[in-house]
């Protein structure tokens, strides 16, 4: 069911009324209306278009999936597209939930693709700052953007913590290298998804901030500026995480190379040690007369040579940390 709210003169006076009454309320210049649609069909959006006189391209934008975050200005309204994001620390997946908002002089219409976009959190922000309702539709837009940007910060923080945990596992010899690689590439993929959502939102929030500067509600500017500052922090944070992921990948390759060098040194050292008894026994195994041939002393001489030489090589390699 669509959710609706009516503010008049900065006060919440009604909610839960039918969408068909929206046009009646908008006839009053002191009224401010919000209503929300979740996964609407074309017929429902056509009704909204008729009620508010929305542009055809704006309606098409509401029906388009996976579009870029943006704000588009039409003659008598604006279209705002944004995404709230969630991060699952178990699967390392970032999920984006789209919302499209139609902004008119005294109305805000939110169109969600699914329930993943928590509209209750947006409503909670409006209820937490009811004194801002006197600023009109800017008050509603501020609450919407505040929630969206907060999800970006929360997802960025969770992704940062996941990368730090991965960094700790890099130097754990008991950790599975295959699992580390899978986790690294999963987090890298999630970071790319997050950046595709976060970076364009800086332009969107900045456009809303500039438009408010040119409007009549300058007192709302500090609140929008706060949202913009959070947006900048999210953008800068994702940039640093991109470098962090690159560092982790380089470190993994370096560690693998170092481990391979250690293994090669160990294998080479043991091969050198094993080559000594092979050479001695091969010499004493020749079918020709030699000193000690056919005598017990020849056997003990070969044993002493094998043990002494092998022990000497082992001590040398151990001292050089090859074993």
Automatic annotation (TrEMBL):
Belongs to the CorA metal ion transporter (MIT) (TC 1.A.35) family. It comes from the Bacteria. InterPro entries: CorA_cytoplasmic_dom, CorA_TM1_TM2, MgTranspt_CorA/ZnTranspt_ZntB. It is found in: Cell membrane. It is a multi-pass membrane protein. The chain crosses the membrane at residues 267-285, 297-317. Keywords: Cell membrane, Membrane, Transmembrane, Transmembrane helix, Transport. This is Magnesium transporter CorA family protein. The keyword Transmembrane helix applies. Gene3D superfamilies: CorA soluble domain-like (3.30.460.20), Magnesium transport protein CorA, transmembrane region (1.20.58.340).
């Amino acid at each position: 069911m669509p959710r609706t709210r009516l503010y008049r003169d900065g006060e919440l006076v009604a909610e839960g009324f039918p969408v068909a009454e929206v046009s009646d309320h908008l006839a009053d210049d002191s009224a401010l209306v919000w209503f929300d649609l979740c996964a609407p069909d074309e017929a429902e959006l056509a009704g909204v278009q008729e009620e508010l006189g929305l542009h055809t391209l704006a309606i098409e934008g509401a029906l388009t999936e996976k579009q870029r975050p943006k704000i588009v200005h039409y003659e008598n309204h604006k279209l705002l597209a944004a995404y709230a994001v969630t991060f699952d620390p178990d699967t390392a997946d970032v999920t984006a939930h789209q919302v499209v908002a139609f902004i008119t002089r005294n109305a805000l219409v939110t169109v969600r693709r699914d329930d993943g976009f928590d509209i209750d959190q947006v409503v909670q922000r409006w209820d937490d700052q009811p004194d801002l309702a006197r600023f009109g539709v800017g008050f509603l837009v501020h609450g919407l953007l505040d929630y969206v940007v907060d999800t970006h910060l929360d997802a960025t923080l969770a992704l940062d913590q996941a990368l730090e945990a991965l960094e700790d596992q890099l130097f754990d010899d008991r950790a599975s290298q295959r699992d580390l690689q899978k986790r690294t590439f999963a987090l890298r993929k999630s970071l790319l998804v997050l950046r595709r959502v976060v970076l364009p939102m800086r332009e969107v929030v900045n456009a809303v901030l500039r438009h408010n500067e040119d409007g009549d509600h300058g007192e709302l500017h500090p609140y929008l500026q706060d949202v913009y500052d959070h947006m900048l922090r999210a953008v800068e944070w994702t940039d640093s995480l991109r470098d962090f992921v690159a560092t982790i990948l380089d470190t993994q390759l370096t560690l693998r190379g170092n481990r391979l060098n250690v293994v090669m040194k160990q294998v080479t050292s043991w091969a050198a040690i094993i080559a000594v008894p092979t050479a001695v026994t091969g010499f004493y195994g020749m079918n020709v007369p030699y000193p000690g041939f056919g005598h017990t002393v020849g056997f003990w001489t070969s044993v002493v040579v094998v043990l002494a030489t092998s022990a000497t090589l082992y001590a040398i390699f151990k001292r050089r940390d090859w074993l």
